[in-house]
Amino acid sequence: MSSLLIHNIGVLATPEGVEARRGEAQGKLRVLEKAWIYTENGEIISYGTGNPPVTFGEKLDAGGRLVTPGLVDAHTHLIFGGWRQNELAMKIRNVPYLDILAAGGGILSTVKATHAATEDELTAKASAALDEMLVFGTTTCEAKSGYGLCPDEELKQLRVIRRLNKEHPMDVAATFMGAHALPPAYKENREGYLRLLCEEMIPAVAKEQLASFCDVFCETGVFTAEESRRILECGREYGLIPKIHADEIDPIGGSQLAGEIGAISAEHLIVCPEDGIDSMARGGTIACLLPATSFYLNSTYAPARRMIEKGVPVALASDYNPGSCPCLNLQLVMNIACLKYRLTPEEVLTGVTLNAAAAIGMADKVGSIDRAKQADLVIWDAPDLNYLCYRLGSNLVHTVIKKGEIKHG
Ligand code: NIG
Ligand code: FE
Questions:
Q1: Could you tell which of 319, 327, 333 is best to mutate to test the pocket of ligand 1, judged by most ligand atoms within 8 Å of the CB?
Q2: Per-residue pLDDT at 104 exceeds 90
Q3: Whole-prediction pTM value?
Q4: C-beta separation of 175 from 134 below 8 A
Q5: Do 170 and 237 belong together in one domain?
Q6: Ligand 2 centroid to 166 CA: how many Å?
Q7: Domains held by the chain: number
């Protein structure tokens, strides 16, 4: 048996429980001063304040620092070939994201680079990104396919995710996103691609148990709300839980659909209308917001405060991808969420831990410092949570602990 006692914690801050927190509860944390946490075999056994219990295993002095749950990044496009630094000059000239895509660039150029890469190459590249995420305090993440857009290539991406789960300490939840763009060969045959998705790709993904979730880019020029409904309902028949990229650029009904079909999460929501928020509140959908993407696209910011007011749980994620957000640093996401969404540090911490875990169906295992959860923890070079959200541009991680083992620091 391996055990670890973390003692001399200045402040322990965590949301509580195994479900997403909404409304006022999103901003309520358990905050303990002069605390300790005891873990065995990768699991949290107990925590408390004052004198720690007498234990015989490994001990770690937190030096009076802040300790939180490991961060959870609930939205990434982790598996891709190449980069798109050539788009920066176009961005600076204000060429719109959807225009770059319509001209065969954007997502479609990453599709080419991803096709050209072998499974080994994609695994090595994604594994290096996971290493970097750990260094910034992320201990669990989600990853989507979507740069394949044909059966073999989508399965290749998902097999990389499966391999990463075996080879890398990070837990990676897998999402099938064959509906990320319409492949150019189907430009005049949308129905043909929808049938390929529903009749070949989704059944193949389910048969190999390669993903837990199905996601669609519901956007002008990509997939309509009705097409998105069809794909997500088909996915659900095969056991894939629906997620949806909604209202990122144009509000074409994605958030309303998310609530209607009870999607576990809706992503982006930059231009989410009131009735979309209402629909998500009714459907129990988590708003998975990506503030670093708003920053990167120089767009407006999702109405996060309104969502909290209306009882929609808010999760915060990076959207790490080679186009609209080549950033995997959740600390920066936390800063932007405070400054642009006007969320409090407490609401933000819940957004990058428990609510993010709930958005990927893992809130029973990770996302809070509770008994019987995985011992995924971060010791921060910060005296308290305000400091963590206030400093900008530094990596404040001191030590990262994954399943009771020190992985960094
Ligand atoms: O979430 N919006 C769609 N997909 C990604 C971007 C992917 C890309 O540009 O390569 C996103 O922003
Ligand atoms: Fe995305």
A1: 319
A2: no
A3: 0.98
A4: no
A5: yes
A6: 24
A7: 2
Distance between Cα 180 and ligand 2 center (Å): 9
How many CB atoms are closer than 10 A to CB 343? 27
3-state secondary structure of 369: coil
The helix-helix angle for 107-116 and 151-167 (nearest 10°) equals 70
- Rounded to the nearest integer, the mean pLDDT of the chain is 97
Residue 217 Cβ contacting ligand 1 at under 6 Å: yes
CATH of the domain at 404: 2.30.40.10
pLDDT tens sequence across 170-185: 999 999 999 999 999 9
pLDDT (tens digit, 9 = 90+) per residue, 126-143?
999 999 999 999 999 999
pLDDT tens for each residue of 359-409? 999 999 999 999 999 999 999 999 999 999 999 999 999 999 999 999 999
Chain position carrying tokens 């990320």: 180
Q: Tokens 């949308």 — which residue?
A: 190
pLDDT, residue 1, reads: 83
Judge if 252 and 200 occupy the same domain: yes
Confidence of residue 102 (pLDDT cuts 50, 70, 90): confident
Instruction: Tell me which residue range forms the domain holding 55.
Output: 3-69+368-408
Helix, coil or strand: residue 76: strand
Decide: helix, strand or coil at residue 372. Answer: coil
CB count in 10 Å sphere of residue 229: 20
Tabulate helix, strand, coil % of the chain (nearest 5).
40, 25, 40
Please check whether residues 80 and 21 belong to one and the same domain: no
